[in-house]
Amino acid sequence: MTAAPAPGSPTGGDPRPALTVTQSRYVPYSHAHYGGSLVDGAYVLGLFGDVATELCIRSDGDEGLFASYSDVQFRAPVRAGDVLEVTATVTRVGRRSREVAFEARVTCRADPGRGPSAAVVLAEPLIAVTASGTVVVP
Description:
The chain is mainly beta. The chain has one helix and eight strands, in the order ββββαββββ. Strands 1-2-6-7-8-5 form a six-stranded antiparallel sheet, covered by helices on one side.
């Protein structure tokens, strides 16, 4: 897990806009729900909730609460055996709300054609899901 505040910001030195948190997660085969070892989209939305929680802790010292998604785009399949990097970035800071941009990238993928436990690191991460959402903190 990493977190990186942006140097400077458009809000007069507030380090929260552009604060970014990234978590990596292996997608277990127990989460495959569909043919081809596909994982449902709700799995990634759960990961977005996890990374948003860390983001709130780092930015405001509180776990916060997820209020809403304003946009979710499923761009590529997520499969059991994938390794995902999930990133949350603060895009706007209100008095109690934070708008957040999310991205889930597949960085490694199972390669069952080479063997039951074979996997590859992708040369370029595959953007699987993007979203925008709002969290609130006390």
